[in-house]
Amino acid sequence: MKKGIKIFLIIILILIIIWFFIRLTSSREIDDVTPGISCEDEKKYVEKADILWVVPNFQNYKISENPEWCGEILSLNKTLGMHGIKHTYREFRRENITQEELEEGMKIFEECFGYNPEIFKYPQLRYNKENRELLKENGLKIRTKFSQFTHKVYHCDNGGISPKDYKITDIFRGIIDNRVADIL
Ligand SMILES: [Zn+2]
Predict the structure, then answer these.
(1) What pTM was computed for the model?
(2) How many CB atoms lie within 10 A of CB 160?
(3) Helix 99-113 vs helix 67-75: angle between axes, to the nearest 10 degrees?
(4) What's the 61 CA to ligand 1 centre distance in angstroms?
């Protein structure tokens, strides 16, 4: 093997090892937290997660209408972020979200948790330029695909993946199940 190729392969290998350790030690997140999506099977991942990504108005069920749920989520003492507004399929890519719609979503979040959302993650991680600008104008910090690459990410109601599967693939969670999440 040529020396150049050898060095190249060694660098790739080192990068993979570094990536592996970043994922091993980085914070965990769980997506699609909202009263309309069952999170029973993933309960222990909710507990382990550092960030919960909340959908404010999934299927027209405003989280603020369920103060008991809001209280439960708050009592977990986690960082809470906003994950879309209604989380329809590729909501922030296919629809042009208006200022009013975004404000309403943020208001629902605020009424539930008592503070405005500061961080935002797109449903299915898909967006268009206009919507990205709108989020920035409203002071929301956006989580990108890159953070999914470096963090373990779980989903509520994980499309039939049995909790047993988690152990084997735990370290790569968020990358392999992105496609599952897309169905939601
Ligand atoms: Zn989602």
Answers:
(1) 0.81
(2) 9
(3) 70
(4) 16
